[in-house]
Amino acid sequence: MDSEARHTWISLFLATLLALGLMAAAYQSTQGPRPSPDADPSPGFGWSWDFDYRRAVQEPALTTDSETNQQPGLYPGELILPIGKPIPVANLSIVYRGPAGAGKFRVDVIIPTLDPGYAYANELTRADQGRELTLYGQRFEVVAIGERVLRLRHLSP
Fold first, then answer.
1. In this predicted model, what pLDDT tens digit does every residue of 110-127 receive, in sequence order?
2. Cα–Cα distance, 135 to 91 (Å, whole number)
């Protein structure tokens, strides 16, 4: 009798495992594989798999408000000077020329009323960041000096 009871329990256990396996297979076949979510590595920063690298490395178009000479997205009086682009401020035109060797950076100032064809050269160092700078009667604060961009805050009225 012991052998028959044991055989019954083993048969019942195997039948239960077979039934569970068949139910799992039936569930999987009716539900199908789950679709993978669309790959978007960082939706918060605007990146996607079809990111346009050529457009991303181009310089952004810097436009200014003609009345206040204010560039979009900056504090009042703050200016961004990319290399080689003249930015008019008051009665001056300031052109950032970039690194001039040995930790120095060159800034040219053109005075259109005096001589529009001549640029007066000035040099800055990284130590000048945060300091006040006077360029031909106009006061500026040097916010940041970079290899390709100079940021100034115009302090004169």
1. 998 888 889 999 999 999
2. 11
